[in-house]
Write a structure and sequence with these properties.
The chain is of the alpha/beta class. The protein has 2 domains: 203 residues, P-loop containing nucleotide triphosphate hydrolases (Rossmann fold, 3-Layer(aba) Sandwich), CATH 3.40.50.300; 66 residues. Helix 5 crosses helix 7. It is globular. The protein binds adenosine-5'-triphosphate (ATP) and magnesium ion. The site of magnesium ion has 3 residues, from helix 1.
């Protein structure tokens, strides 16, 4: 499969007065053309900083200190200023969790989408841009687009605002759409609709999506392949079916158990014991071991590498897990 984005050994650290915070600590992610890739993990694991690194929007005292980010074979890290702004406007767009912060409250959503269109297509006039905006409103499933066109952001529901944001992100027909917790603020029915909409856009337009979420249930809905992040590192990565069928890391196992299930009795929520460690004081060895139910003495001493796991799902591609328990069954690369 052709690769669209390749992140190799990315390190984004924050240099604070109290010490260095390794928010992203050697992460490698591949996004094939026309795919939906999930990045999942608890709060503070480095998901957003990975996304911000791709966009080169990391703020001081944060800095990308190592690694490469290639889009269609071109290293984005050698770009700066205008060139990167160009990439952000044309090839990659990003959707944030709370659209209220990304939309301007004093302009109608119609005006904001129309302006976004005119920034990308200099040669079209206002009338044409309005027609395109209404087409986009239709494409993202906004009912009564003519009426909504003149609404201000605060007059729309959370779900409709998120649809406007997705519409804005589509204006430039990006190759890659990064969606950082796009449905966290929405209720489950609206969440399902928005996920379905993103999947539809990916299928119809061939846009790849990097979907960031703390919820493995969301990943299961639309992702082809998933990266599970913990304290700045990828702990497990696999095809979505494979990840659910052949969970190989205890952290992923914990996230699986935390997916809300409504049972006949009452809703029971599992929580992984303990908390994400302070990144400035990471434990020696495996960073998950203080919370791991299967930790062995070795796990407190050495950091495990990513082992290649034998897959159980056919055509699942490669499956890796950063756990010593996978060492004995490791599949060796033939290449
Ligand atoms: N300005 C900053 N100064 C110091 N550390 C920071 C700063 N911004 C982020 N970090 C650190 O980077 C780590 C990763 O943050 P990030 O926002 O990527 O987490 P996340 O996985 O997106 O979490 P969430 O699910 O809460 O959005 C955090 O643990 C935080 O401590
Ligand atoms: Mg985040």
């Amino acid at each position: 499969m052709d690769e669209l984005l390749r992140i190799n050994n990315l390190k984004t650290h924050f240099f604070t007065k109290k010490g260095v915070v390794p928010a992203v600590d050697g992460v490698s992610i591949s996004v094939p053309q026309s795919s939906v890739i999930g990045v999942v993990g608890e709060s503070g694991c480095g998901k957003s900083m990975t996304a911000m690194s791709i966009m080169q929007l990391v703020q001081k005292p944060g800095r990308i200190i190592d690694g490469s980010i290639e889009l269609e074979g071109e290293d984005l890290l050698k770009y700066s200023g205008d060139n990167m702004r160009n990439i952000r406007g044309n090839k990659i767009s990003m959707i944030f969790q709370e659209p209220m912060t990304a939309l301007n409250p004093v302009y109608t959503v119609g005006r904001q989408v129309t302006e976004a269109i005119r920034i990308h297509h200099h040669d079209i006039d206002k009338e044409e841009a309005k027609k395109m905006a209404l087409d986009i409103f239709n494409a993202v499933g906004i009912p009564e687009p003519d009426r909504r066109f003149n609404s201000y952001p605060h007059q729309l529901s959370g779900g409709l605002r998120q649809r406007v944001m997705i519409g804005m992100a589509m204006v430039c027909n990006p190759r890659l759409m990064i969606a950082d917790e796009p449905t966290t603020a929405l209720d489950v029915t609206i969440e399902a609709q928005i996920l379905f909409l993103m999947k539809k856009l990916q299928e119809e337009r061939g846009t790849s999506i990097l979907l960031i979420t703390h919820n493995l249930g969301v990943v299961a809905e639309i992702c082809d392949y998933v990266y599970v992040m913990y304290a700045g590192k990828v702990m497990e990565q696999a095809n979505t079916f494979e990840l659910f069928k052949n969970t190989s890391h205890q952290y992923t196992e914990g996230l699986m158990k935390s997916i809300p299930k409504i049972t006949a009795e009452k809703e029971r929520l599992y929580n992984i014991k303990g908390v994400v460690p302070n990144l400035m004081k990471l434990p020696k060895g495996c960073r998950f071991c203080p919370r791991c139910e299967k930790a062995m003495p070795r796990c407190f001493m050495e950091e495990p590498p990513l082992y290649k796991v034998k897959t159980v799902v056919e055509n699942a591609g490669e499956h890796y897990a950063r756990c010593f328990l996978c060492e004995s069954s490791e599949v060796m690369n033939d290449d």
